[in-house]
C-alpha cells in the first residue's frame, strides 16, 4: 500500500506544504508580531528625544508571546508529542510481529521486521536529537515569559540557539551512519560532485532509495 499511497506527486505536495508553513511561521515576526511597538512606547514614556536605537538581541527583538504561545505550544510541542506516540505504537507493533514470527520459527519475516525495527530506531534517534536540540531554547523562552523577574545567563541562551542551528547538521550524519542506503548515496554524491569521480551504480542506488 505504501507505493500506491505515497506517490511522487503527493510527496512533492507534502514537502511544498511543509516549506510554505515553515516560511509563514518563521516570518510571522516580520509581519508585525515583534517588540518594535513596545520599545517605541517605552521610549515615549521615558520622554526620550534621543535617536531610536534597537538593541540587537534575540529576547529584545523577538516577542516571547510569539515564541511560546504560537511557536512552541502550536508548532513544536503538539507535533513532538504526536510523533512520540506514533513511534511508541510503531515499536509496539514491530515487537509484536517479531514475537509472532519467532514463535512460529520463521526466519524470513523475522529478518524483515528486524530491518524495520532498525530503521524505526534510526528515525526515533532523529526525533530524540530534535527534542534535545530545540527544547532547551523553548524552556528558556517559557521562563522569560512566565517569570520576568528570573534572570537567565546569556551564555545559556547562546548555547540553546547554537543547539537549534546544530540540529540541522545532525540528521544527515544520523542517516549516513545508521542507514546503509543513505550512506552509500552520500558517498556517491561526494565522489561525483566533490571528488569528480563517476559511479555506474549511482542510478541503481537512487532507484533503491526511491523504493
UniProtKB/TrEMBL annotation:
InterPro entries from the UniProt entry: Adeno_A1_rcpt, Adenosn_rcpt, GPCR_Rhodpsn, GPCR_Rhodpsn_7TM
One Gene Ontology MF term: G protein-coupled adenosine receptor activity
Membrane topology note: Multi-pass membrane protein
Lipoprotein among keywords: yes
Transmembrane segments: 12-33, 72-94, 123-146, 158-177
Compartments (UniProt record): Cell membrane
Keyword Translocase: no
Domain G-protein coupled receptors family 1 profile residues, every copy: 1-175
GO cellular-component term (any): dendrite
Pfam families (UniProt xref): 7tm_1
Coiled-coil ranges (or none): none
Keywords: Cell membrane, Disulfide bond, G-protein coupled receptor, Glycoprotein, Lipoprotein, Membrane, Palmitate, Receptor, Transducer, Transmembrane, Transmembrane helix
Origin: domain of life: Eukaryota
Record function comment: Receptor for adenosine. The activity of this receptor is mediated by G proteins which inhibit adenylyl cyclase.
PANTHER family: ADENOSINE RECEPTOR A1, OLFACTORY RECEPTOR AND ADENOSINE RECEPTOR
Listed name of the protein: Adenosine receptor A1
Source organism (scientific name): Alca torda
Biological classification of the source: Eukaryota, Metazoa, Chordata, Craniata, Vertebrata
